[in-house]
Specification:
This protein is of the alpha+beta class. The chain has helices at 5-18, 60-72, 134-143; strands at residues 22-29, 36-41, 47-48, 51-53, 74-76, 81-87, 95-102, 105-107, 117-123. 24% of the residues lie in helices and 31% in strands. The strands form three sheets. Strands 4-1-7-6 form a four-stranded mixed β-sheet, with helices on one face. A three-stranded antiparallel β-sheet has the order 3-2-9, covered by helices on one side. It has a two-stranded antiparallel sheet with strand order 5-8.
Length: 153
Amino acid sequence: MVANPLLIKLLQRYWRLTRGLTMGAQAAVLDDSRRVLLVRHGYRSGWHFPGGGVEKSETVGLALERELHEETGIILTAPPELFGLYANFGSFPGDHIALFVVRAWQQKHVPPPNREILEQRFFAAGAIPEDASDGTRRRIEEILGQNPRSDIW
């Protein structure tokens, strides 16, 4: 049986309306000393992993690369490790975050502070800022093996 392209398009639109979700890509960038890079945004409080939303017709991997470069000036030098896929329903119903661990990277320049990213800094595991988001703090503990993985951000 050959699929009807018009029917497929209609079903895709229906599924988007009834099963809508959003996807984000974030990175736990680690340096050689196992410090983690966090950013402070201009539009929300606290410290977070760099990253952002996956755009239409963009893979999650490309979104990660784009967001890392835009926000921090980091360029990947090897594929990142997909660490986990998390439900972030507290922020938006249907929201998911793909978290990658990035160990191979270059940062030829640090972008100047702007409206989106006010500051970026590497932190040792024992010196994560108190105002780091709860989700960020829990993911760092998971990455370092201090807590079991969850599927809720």
